[in-house]
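Person: Show me a sequence?

Helper:
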Amino acid sequence: LHSTETKKFQICIMSIWRSIITGIFFLFISILSQAQTSQVVKAFDDSTYLSKQVNGLNALIHQQSSTGNVQISVYVKIGSVYENDSVSGISYILQNILSDKITNRLRGNKSGISFDNTTFNHYSTTELSVFQLTSAPENYAACLELLRDSLFSAKLYEAELRNKIEAVRAEIISDKKDYNNIFNTQLTERL
């Protein structure tokens, strides 16, 4: 009986997540998939620029004085602040899936940028996820195109979502076990 209830609960949660993910991606794709080349570039100072795309997508470009490289940051409004209890953690899952897509495109890219000459960073806040590529200035357009294509032209598959959810679930369980082991060891040492 317990197994049947658990299975029904999992099916219900997956159905809700599938609907939400589909809605989010259709929204992102419909609004942002028209990104093309930069339309407006606004300088904040000598080393920081805002590149506004045709579709309204903004990228912050910062020239690093120490290396001369350019860091391109794209901000996507997916964060825990937009979640409710039924989809808690979905922004973390999405951020990880999108990061994987960028990493895979960077590995297989034929436009002159790769892990040899470009670094990739990503992180999430409560309000957004940030994806950054840092490379030589001549790679600016290729980096911006790679970010655009990876984030807004990407397809999300149910199997991919399920795999990522299971990976995160396993990570959480592992972290709990590690925490319990540390706690039990410290407790035993004190007794």
Observations:
- The CA atoms of residues 9 and 137 lie 51 Å apart.
- The helical segments are 2-32, 90-107, 140-152, 158-190.
- The two ends are 41 Å apart (CA to CA).
- The longest strand covers residues 70-76.
